[in-house]
Amino acid sequence: MKTLLVPTDFSQHAFNACLYAAGMAVGHDWKLHLLHVYDTYYAVSAYPAMTGAAWAEIRDAADEQMAGLITKLQEQFPSIAISGENREGTVGDAVAKSAREKAVDLVVMGTHGATGLKYATLGSNTFAVIQKSPVPVAAIPAGVSTFRMDRVGFAVNYHVSEITALESFTELINRPVDIILFHLYGKGKQEETQKLQKWEKRFEKITSGSRSRLHFKLAISRNLPVGINRMVFREGLNALVMTPVDKPFFDRLFSKQLVKVIAHKPVVPVFFMKGAGK
Q1: What does 187-248 look like in DSSP terms, one character per residue?
Q2: Whole-angstrom Cα distance, residue 198 to residue 99?
């Protein structure tokens, strides 16, 4: 039995992430664990005049909202075991701690979408969770609440961590899916084709025992965000898989330019897998 951890701030967007996670869990005997985090350190700094009674009121309200959220989800998904908790601390630290304590398999977290974007579509909280989480993180964009997993894109850059990440992903989802492994390059198609062909065997070997079907694609693109966006819509992908390596990678992947290009359509969920050999 797998456990999905879903951080929530009780907003509609967070509720959409709950629905996505529930859709993923239905029919697989998986559990949902909801987590709300309130950062008392930040709040005390911003509102030093707040009293202990005011804090107690905030905690009571959070408990009430959590109970209501669990009831609402349980009514829609009676076959799923759903639990919840409220914690003090920062989102990244609280999610990491809860994930370890609850033996979580995947964190499913809503992200900021095109509307309200300031610096990056992931937002600081989601990026912190991806960095600190001991397990994979699925970043669910605004407006997406229905789970679909039939065509998934996997961005390949010929790094050994991608082998482990692909194996972990197929084990995690545990269902038949077409996985399009694609590499974006700036020039030198013949050289890139030869390189991809060498890696095809390594990827196929690692997934030979799964129910997934692998497809390999090359695409020329000097702009990483635009190239990924085009691949999503060209191939009809309903999710992406990434192996996060460093902050600059995220800055390029989730840039303002990408959001401008796809603002008229929702961004697909992105599964950030943990890969060995970084």
Answers
A1: S-HHHHHHHHHHHHHHHHHHTTTSS-EEEEEEEE-SSHHHHHHHHHHHTT-SEEEE----HH
A2: 37
- Amino acid of residue 42: Y
State the Cα–Cα distance between residues 268 and 17, nearest whole angstrom.
12
Domains in the chain (CATH in brackets) are 3-140 (3.40.50.620), 151-271 (3.40.50.620)
Q: Which of 145, 131, 122, 128 is nearest to 37 (CA)?
A: 128
Q: Specify the DSSP element, H or E, that contains 181.
A: strand 178-185
Closest CA to 44 of 28, 31, 35, 55: 55
Q: What is the pLDDT of residue 112?
A: 60
Among 165, 171, 113, 117, smallest CA distance to 144 is for: 113
pTM score, two decimals?
Answer: 0.85
Burial category of 76 from C-beta neighbours within 10 Å (exposed 0-12, middle 13-18, buried 19 and up): exposed
Q: What is the average pLDDT across 134-142? A: 91
**Would you say the C-alpha torsion 238, 242, 244, 246 has a positive or negative sign?**
negative
Q: Is 45 exposed, middle or buried (0-12, 13-18, 19+ CB in 10 A)?
A: exposed
